């Protein structure tokens, strides 16, 4: 294919899916820092102390405090603070079986307040992951957009010849941004197009690594949903007859003594293990502890340890470093896609580059319209605003994107506000 053909393919694909792509990119960008949006919205989350990601917490005392203060609540899980400036989070269910959040000071264990289940973190997660649609449908659409981004990246290499030479060509942006003369509409459109083109290129160059990560992990979610997912076998409690497990569903007060034994067992067996989440499963009478140990780039569940919820006796578990390559790929997807590995700093790096990808999508559309203005193709539409021209030029292809976004917003309103 000639360079012109690659260019046509690049701008045609980018232009016609830009609306939905920009929406998914923007919601994914804010999903990386959504827990801090909740921190801003709910003062109960704000901690008075700075807590490191590997600091030891007194989990049994946290459990005791919350069960004493909320005797009628069913405690589902306890979570290490998402950020060093956050409080400990407890997920619980009230007497109506509705989930809510409780926040405790990580040091004093004082109750700091409560929060709703459907918060900003849940909103951006569900909107970005599957557009509030059934997961099979939503993840398929979003995953296909991830693969489309990979196609756009590949075509850009053919459009932008010798691209590796221009990583530090910032001066080209400055030169095209200045114009002291009064130019004709076509020449002014050309000057603007050159400016946005150079900005588009430089942002794209510095975002190559990030685009590769996002598109490949997005494609992996699609592959997982259509049959290649890595599923763990259940670690059951041998003391529980699953056919009679409904007997235990009424137990809503986990044992802090059993949790103490479980935490001590982990400390003795794997001293470097960092506990990040504790789940209580009354039907199976187990305590599930997830966290980080030796393996890098795995979700907490990769290091799951399971204990009897009455005696604290160890039942079984797994270690991330012992998983097969299939499981390791699956476990690496989330940390790479959202920057949730190592330091919290990576989340904000992901946020900045996420804004960069969103800018690429938006500027790509703007450049196309400027190109039409420069060539005189918009003479008949020159009295119209750019958004109106964009509406006309996208023809029927805009309607699926508009329908999906409107449906997503409607479902979010129903789920998060009305219900």
Structural write-up:
The protein is α+β, with helices and mostly antiparallel strands and 419 residues long. The protein contains 14 helices and eight strands. Strands 4-3-2-1-5-6-7-8 form an eight-stranded antiparallel beta sheet, covered by helices on one side. Helix 2 (18-31) packs antiparallel against helix 12 (345-374).
- β content, as a range? 5-15%
Distance between the termini: 53 Å
Count of individual beta strands? 8
Sheet with most strands: 8 strands, antiparallel
Keywords, separated by commas or semicolons:
eight-stranded antiparallel beta sheet; alpha+beta; 11% strand; 8 strands; 419 residues; 53% helix
In short:
By secondary structure, this protein is an alpha+beta fold. Helices cover 53% and strands 11% of the residues. The chain has helices at 3-16, 18-31, 34-41, 59-69, 120-130, 135-159, 171-177, 185-206, 208-228, 256-269, 325-338, 345-374, 386-393, 398-418; strands at 74-79, 88-93, 99-104, 111-116, 274-281, 286-292, 305-308, 314-317.
Helix/strand layout:
Blueprint (H helix, E strand, L loop, with lengths): L2 H14 L1 H14 L2 H8 L17 H11 L4 E6 L8 E6 L5 E6 L6 E6 L3 H11 L4 H25 L11 H7 L7 H22 L1 H21 L27 H14 L4 E8 L4 E7 L12 E4 L5 E4 L7 H14 L6 H30 L11 H8 L4 H21 L1
Antiparallel strand pairs: 1-2, 1-5, 2-3, 3-4, 5-6, 6-7, 7-8
Helix pairs in contact: 1-6, 2-5, 2-12, 3-5, 4-10, 6-9, 7-8, 8-12, 9-11
